[in-house]
Design goal:
The chain is α+β, with helices and mostly antiparallel strands. It has 10 helices and 19 strands. Helices cover about 25% and strands about 30% of the residues. Helix 5 packs across helix 7 and helix 6 runs antiparallel to helix 9. The longest helix has 13 residues.
Length: about 375
């Protein structure tokens, strides 16, 4: 069975006023449009064409959440827990109301995620940079007392230990003078090696003046994706999307531990308990296609994602449901086993129940197919 899905964009403050409207070929509403959720998560289940919501069809058992994400300004610096950490945190917060702003855990699930760029340029921060590289970057900021204090925090120990210490120190509230000095030093900083990183963090500082997360961003890897490229963000990995339009898929969870660039709740000790401070670069997954189909390989059981580019020929794709087809360009029609064809408009999706084992795609355009992982 095939079901047409839609949903209203969520109006988070960091959302773009134009990216989703441009994608869908409609007039902007004037309000920020940040995310469109296609899933059965209780936070915002997708709307089915018959007036119901997807959770009434699935019983809330879909293991993944598929989204369109449109960022005009940086999202919060954040990290997601493992399953064990989420279950423990959920249990500890059982007495808190579901909407309590002090709650860290919204469910008992982990939240690994993959994002694929739809815009020609998508900016992100992902993972912590090696200390040696960050010390070279800090030389571009001069020798103020704030810069010296951060440098001293980063010297004299293993990367994992000193990075944890530095992140905790910056977010604790006791280092605001040093944070202000470091942000001020950004204005006149110059580095051939780290020019892109410094430009990106200066732009973040303009948006969030005085926020300790600006300095945490200086410790992170700066990533630019081109259209069709992707990054996978595992549990424990510090990250933040900065700007651009993308297709995002994740385990069905809303667990977020925040570490700056947000007015929302920040629990520093809980974030540090989840954070993996092992320095690592986040590899960019290129769009390597086999015919019309690009597969983004990630080793998680919750989800798998493929991109299909259609040029007029019929393309049949095997699926292991429940699956979802999200249209991001052109005019595409989806057919299942019963042969009934469903047109999927750009910015909307078609849900295929578990009895569908192959989907036939016709037309010209681009779709993303989501399903549970192996």
């Amino acid at each position: 069975m095939l079901l047409s899905l839609s949903n209203a964009p969520r109006d988070y403050a960091w959302g773009s006023t134009s990216l989703l409207a441009d994608l869908e070929g409609r007039e902007p509403t004037g309000a920020p449009e940040a995310e469109v959720w296609f899933g059965d998560h209780s936070g915002d289940p997708a709307d089915v064409a018959d007036g119901s919501t997807l959770d009434s069809v699935t019983g809330g058992t879909l293991p993944y959440l598929l989204k369109l994400l449109a960022a005009a300004s940086p999202l919060s610096i954040q990290v997601h827990p493992t399953i064990a950490q989420a279950r423990d945190g959920w249990g500890r917060e059982e007495a808190l109301a579901a909407d309590d702003p002090a709650r860290n855990y919204r469910d008992a699930n982990h939240k690994p995620e993959l994002i694929v760029a739809l815009s020609d340029r998508f900016e992100a921060l992902g993972g912590l940079r090696s200390v040696a590289d960050t010390l070279r970057l800090l030389t571009a900021l001069g020798d103020t007392s704030g810069v010296r204090a951060l440098r001293e925090r980063l010297e004299g120990g293993s990367d994992e230990v000193v990075l944890r210490d530095a992140v905790g120190w910056l977010l604790s509230g006791g280092a605001q003078r040093e944070v202000d000095e470091i942000i001020a030093a950004l204005a006149a900083s110059s580095s051939e090696e780290f020019a892109a990183e410094l430009d990106a963090v200066r732009a973040i500082a303009d948006r969030y003046p005085g926020d300790p997360g600006v300095v945490v961003a200086l410790l992170m890897n700066y990533i630019v994706l081109r259209r069709g490229e992707a990054i996978f963000l595992r549990a424990g990995l510090l990250h933040a999307y900065i700007s651009g339009l993308g297709v995002e898929i994740m385990a069905a969870s809303d667990n977020v531990l925040r570490g700056g660039l947000t007015p929302k709740h920040i629990d520093v000790s809980e974030l540090l308990s989840v954070l993996d401070t092992t320095p690592e670069a986040v590899p960019v997954l290129p769009p390597t296609a086999t015919g019309a189909v690009t597969t983004y390989d990630v080793d998680v059981p919750d989800f798998a994602l493929r991109r299909v580019v259609l040029t007029g020929d019929l393309v049949t794709v095997e699926v292991a449901g429940p699956a979802m087809v999200l249209s991001t360009a052109g005019e595409v029609t989806v057919s299942g086993a019963e042969g009934a064809a469903v047109a999927v408009a750009v910015g909307s999706a078609v849900f295929a129940t578990e009895d569908e084992t192959a989907l036939s795609l016709s037309g010209s355009g681009e779709v993303f197919i989501a399903q549970p992982g192996d």
